[in-house]
Design brief:
The chain has about 90 residues and is mainly α. The chain is built from 4 helices and no strands. It has one domain. It is about 50% helix and about 0% strand.
Amino acid sequence: MADLQDVPEYPSPEALRAWLSAALLATELRPAPLAQAIGGGVNTVSAFLKTPGRDIKLSRARALVSHVRAVAAEKGVVLPPLGDPARGTGHG
């Protein structure tokens, strides 16, 4: 069994929701085109952002973060750190 200290921490859905909202504003991305860019349904991102308590698959979260970071890099936009303030973590 893997040592649990080696398991990376991931932000909570609430922390991801807050980061994604800020990142969309910073990059001027819209939820529907972002969802389609990662192969999701047109309402995937909007539903996640608008529904407190809604969860998201880790694979979808990784695709969203990766795509938004790539767009930000192309535009020269600095994104806020991705983390979970409740746990004191930040993953820029």
